[in-house]
Structures are given as structure tokens and as C-alpha cells.
Amino acid sequence: MKKLVSLVLALVLALSMMSFAAAEDPFVISVLLPEFPADIDFVMEDNPVLNKIQELSGVKLDIHWGPNSTYAEIFSTTLADANPPMLVSATNARDPQVINSAKAGAFWDLTSFVNDPENYPYLSAGNQNIYKSISVEDKLYGIYRSRAFPRGGIYYRLDIAKEVGFDKEVKTIDDLTELAEKLAGYSADTYALNMCSYTAGTINVITVAMGAPNTWGVDADGNIYPAHKSEGYKKGLDWLRHLYEIGGIDPNFAQISTSDWDTIERNNKAFMRFDCLDNAHRQQEWFENNAGATTQLFQTVGPVAKEDGSITVWPQNEGFVGEILVMKNAVKEEDLPKVMKFLDWCNSPEGQTIINAGLEGLTYDVDEEGFRYVPEEKSDEYSKNSQMYHNNVNQLGMGVPGNLETPKARVNRGATELRQRYEDLNVELAPYAVLNPCAGLASETQVNFGAQLDPIISDAAVQYIAGLIDEAGLQAAWDEWAAMGGDQMTAEYNEAYHAAHD
Amino acid sequence: MTTKAAEKKAVYGTGKNYWGHLRSEVKRDRYLYLLLLPGFIYFIVFKYLPMFGIVIAFENYVPVSGVFGSQWVGFKWFESFFKFPAWTGYLANTLILSLMNIIFFFPAPIILALLLNEMMNLRYKKLLQTLLYVPHFISIVIVVSITFVMFGPSGIVYKLTAQLLGHPINYMGSPDTFRWMIIGQTIWKETGWGTIIFLAALTNVDTQLYEAAMVDGAGRLRRLWHITLPAIRSTIVLMLILRMGSVLDTGYDHLILMANPLNRKVSQTLDVFVYQQGIQSGQFSYASAIGLMKSIVSVTLVLLSNKVAHLMGEQGLY
Asked: Which of A129, B141, B183, B214 has the highest CB neighbour number within 10 Å of its CB?
């Protein structure tokens, strides 16, 4: 309700500004961003963080929030809106509707701006390869939102592992199996691997570690094939199925909501997870703040070697997730530089610091060595402030020139090592990352029937892990997928792949 | 049709004469027609004009190019759908769910209305009616949440059946139970509300008929069978015809809320398909084409069942 009122107020304000436009009025930039739920509602009026952003960047912000759980719907209806916000955050840069709309001229071509270091120093410092890979017909329509790479991985509870007699570093698949089996035997009502209804990440981590390609693979003849046809994929599923059989996975995992995923670990019900590696230090911090933990409880796993010694890692992303688009029918040509200046500012050290960390004295303090930190006695207050004033603003962050925050973050006591290890692991794992060869390619069947075909594979995997179908059932689902259009899709990707690489 | 045309001919004559007659009638009752105008405009503006949007079913609609600027693709989306081998599965899921709905849910409000009608204590009856309407106003999201709490793996029903049978029944995660859960939820939520129209029909039954039947020695069941049911027969037929019009409508929100990887096979209906294509993937043209196809089938079914009702001697819709 508050949000609605503030939105209406912002709108009224924007309207009144338009009607009495004086020369010194700040330029209004409207933007659609995904909103993540928090315990405390985000405050729009008199928000010190927003005020500071507006003061420093010299624009007035009109933010439209789209709840993350329904963002796909909000995004597609916004693209169809006659009066969309000026900036729209897209969570998938290769969404067919983004590409179709780009081709039809829905967005401004930003190519010249990222090649203008004089006026847009930060935007032009972005990764040109990523700019190129999200371009449509050689034109750049969005500024990508950078993410740590490869980010995907394995972490587990160090203390429980020691308790069940596993006291070494996980370096091979055999180590991982040993750890999982031992964790499974910890107690009757706990589980080894934490799984929920979102299974794609878990399955990707283990199958790629076993040698499967990332979604699509390229065979010896240079042809595209789907990941599930590889030996590694089957091995990965078998690994999970085995763990399920020995009671290492909650039998009802397919019905556990993603919002309970963290809670299960926090209630000490499961001790290992295949997901984003940075979640390990977030869980560690939670245990420190809420359960009085003083030692390192979580451990992240580095490169895991297969029997033949080779290492393959599933990257959670390609170095970026989504992009921010500039809508043509919301931004006049003469206003475009102003909008781009704002985006450039968001990537500046000043902009990045506020957007990613908030304000000194509100969400962080600076210690004598010049690092950002949250003092223990203020952690509750600062966490509350973050939720009220700052957290959702970080969706404005793009970070294309890399992390330029000043001051840099000093992290909490125990989580320090894990945070550092996370940064190190990203560097260490990057060379082993397996990329999806079809990531930037188009398939008409994928566009038209992807929403129907993809679940055939993923549902069958879940049913196989849970022992509801056997190998024949798995094969039947794959055959069904192939007959329903999977073969057609493979052929289309093959054609696109050869057209792009030959 | 022919009889109606003949009637018209008899009253107004033909051709020019008819239009002239109409004009003089409009002139005479102009204030009455003026009263009609707002409703007329409402239907034109909000019901008929939007129908032109259907053309996007024959285009490759891109919002920024608009309805007029998008590329014309003819029947591409229809062809694409029928070339998709899984479309029969979607149709089957839709029809099975609808059929189960008609067999198990449709009679429920009728039975409940008859039961309510037999109640003697008026105050208790009114209270009961009000209570029965409440579930209708509960959001389906809440209903599904309640179901999860009761039938989910940690729910009381789940645990109770596991105790009684010796093995658990996975109510929420099995293709075998999925449709029954949906029907069960629908019955729980909508039965009370559905009684309204039948109760209204029941109030029209002449009480003298009951008295006469009582004198003749008819018991409760006899009276129900020979008086009450025939009295609301035409209402039941009317509701059934209307129901036929929505045989392909399963709704998507209820199904999406209940679907998970273990039961998705049976939860994929045409409405879910339209939702996935149109709203989630932004394929507005594709979704419109499927929606249009559904509408054509629905209209055909309504007309057909109306015809059947006529043949059975019922008044039907019109």
C-alpha cells in the first residue's frame, strides 16, 4: 500500500514537473527493476539512499518494481506497453522477445556510447566480448549486468563432515561420493544433499562435473548434441539416484519450495548443496549472526577431478546475467545522452559504492584501515536499514568495468576466509568452466516449444533420481523429447552453430 | 430460423417496409432507445472493438511494431501448433479434466441445493447457506496452500493415510492423484456458490403441487423425484449448455499452482499452454491463435448442445 501511495506520489510529482518544467528541474528517469522480497518493506519516500543517488547523479528516479517471482510476466507486458519506463532490466539478454523487439526497433542502439571513452569512461571500459555476444545484428541494445564467473559449485558443512569422519579436501569425484555417503549416514532425519523443487542447478553441477556438456555439446565431428545424450549426464543422474536410495536426499525434494532451500541448511537438516558458491559465506554469516557460530562451519569445494584426472565445471553464468535496455518509445533522441550519462554514473566508483553497499553510517561503517564493515553492535540496525533503504537498489548495478567500489568491503570475522576463498575459487575454476556452445544461437523450435519441451527432460531427471522411473523410463522420456521437437531443435542449433563457426 | 423469418414477414412485411416500420418505432420510443444507448455503447466499445485484436493471431506480433505494423503470417501459428506432436496430449489433459469436472463437480451444487431445500429450520438454513458461500471468496492460492499443509508430506492427511494403509500416498506429487485433487478443491470451493442459481429455481416450484402429492401419499423421495427435479430441469439443462461452452477452459492459475515435476504430465492443458506462450514467453500471437481456436470450439459446442436441448424438448439458451 505504501509502495502504491509512493508510486502515485512519484507519478504526480513527475507529472507536475512536466507541466511546470523549469530549466533547473532534474531530468526524470523511469526504470523497471526486479524486486526481491525482504522481511521489511522497501521505503520509497524520503529514502536517504535514493536521495543520495539522485543528488549525485543529478537525475530524478522513478522506479517501478516487478516482484522477482513474476518478473517474466511483468517484463513481457512492459515490452508490450505503449508507455514503458525508459530503462528496463531484462533478466535474460537472449530472451526471444528481447531479440524480436530489438530487431523491430524497440530499443536504442547503444553501440556508439560504449565506444566513446571520453564521455562514457565506465561504460566503454566494459568487456567488449560480452557486449559483442549480447548484440543483435551487430548492434548493442543493452548494458549487461556483470556477475562473478563461474560462480556455480559445491559447498558442505565442515563440522558435520568431521563428525562423520571425513577430514580431507574434496579433490576427486570419489572424495565427493565418500563425503556424500558419510553425510547421508549422519542421522535418520537429516539428509546429505540439500535439494528443492529447483533442480536445474544441482543437476548441472554434478552432471558437468562428471563430464556432461553445458546444455548442449559439440561432438567429435563438430555437431551439436543435447547434454542428456552424454555419458556424464547419465553418470551424474546415477550419482544423485544412488544418494537418494541410501537416504541422502529428502524423498519429497520435488515439492520443497525454493524459499525453504536456505532454511533447511539453517535448521541443520541437510549438509551439502550444489548451487552458487557465494551462498556458502552467506550461510556462514547467518550462522554467525543467528546461531552464535564462532568457527568456520561451511567449506567450498575447489576443482573436482574425474577418474581420468580431467576437470570440468558448470559455470552458473557467462560472466553476466541479463542487461538493462533503453526503450526507444520512452526516451527522446535528444535525451538519450542524459540517460546514458546516468548509466555511466551507475558504473562509476561513486555509483557502484552506493548502489552495491548503501551509505556510510546507514548500512556500513568505515574502519581505520579504510574498509567498509558492519560493526557487531549495529548489525541489526544496519540490516534493517539495508532492507528498508538499500537492498533492492542493487538491481541498478551493472558493474561493467569491474568492482570499483570505494571504500572496499571488509567482511565479517568468520566469513572472511570463505569470502576470500570464493574470490580465489572463481579465478581457479574459470579455466575449467564448460560453456554452452548454443548460448547466443537461435532455434525456432526452442522459441516456440522450449517452454513445453525443456520440462520433459528435467522432469524425467527428477523422476529418475527419485526412483519413480528406471533407465527405460528415462530413455522413453528422451525419445519423447526427440519426437516432440527435440530432434528438430538439435538440427536447428546445428545449422546455426555451423553458420556461426564455419 | 425459417419460422422466425416468417413471423417477421407477417408482422412487418418485407424489405423497405420493414426498415420504415423500424424507423417509426424507434422514433416513437426514442427515449426508451436513448436509455438503451449507454449499454449499447458499452458493448461496442468494450466487447466488440477489442475483438479486432484477434488479428494478431494471424500476425507475427511485435509490440513495438503494433497491430498494424507487424508482419502478416496467416495460419502459421495454427500450423505450428498442430505440427507440435505433443498437442494431442494437451488436448487430452484438457478434455479429461473437463469431463471429470462435469461428471463429479457439476451435479454437486444441484444435490446440495436439493438438500438445502428440504431443510425445515429457515434460520439454520440461511446461516448454512452463508457459510457455504464463504469458500468461493477464498483465493485459489490460499486453497492450494491449505491443501499443501494438509495433504503435503508433513500434512495430517498424508500421515494419517500412511498410518492406515501402511504406505504413504503422494497426493501432491503424483500424476494419479493430480486430477482428483483438482476436482476435490473445485468441489470444496465452488459447490456452495453454485447452489445459488438452483435455489432460485427451486423457489419457483408451486407449493400446491407438494400438498397435492402429499395427499396422494407421496413420500419425500417421490416428491423430490416427481416434482422438484422436473421443476428445475430446464435450469439444469441451461447450466449444462453453458458448461459445454467452457469444456476447453481449465484455467491456468489453479493448475500451475498445483503442478510440479512429478505430475506435470497431466497438468499441461491448453490454458496452461496459452499462459506459457503468451505471458511467460511473450509470444502474444501464438497464444492468441490458440485462444481463438479454443473460442471457436467453445461456440460450436454451445450451439450444438443448444440444438440437442431443443431436440429433447427443452427451451435451452434461446
From this structure: B183
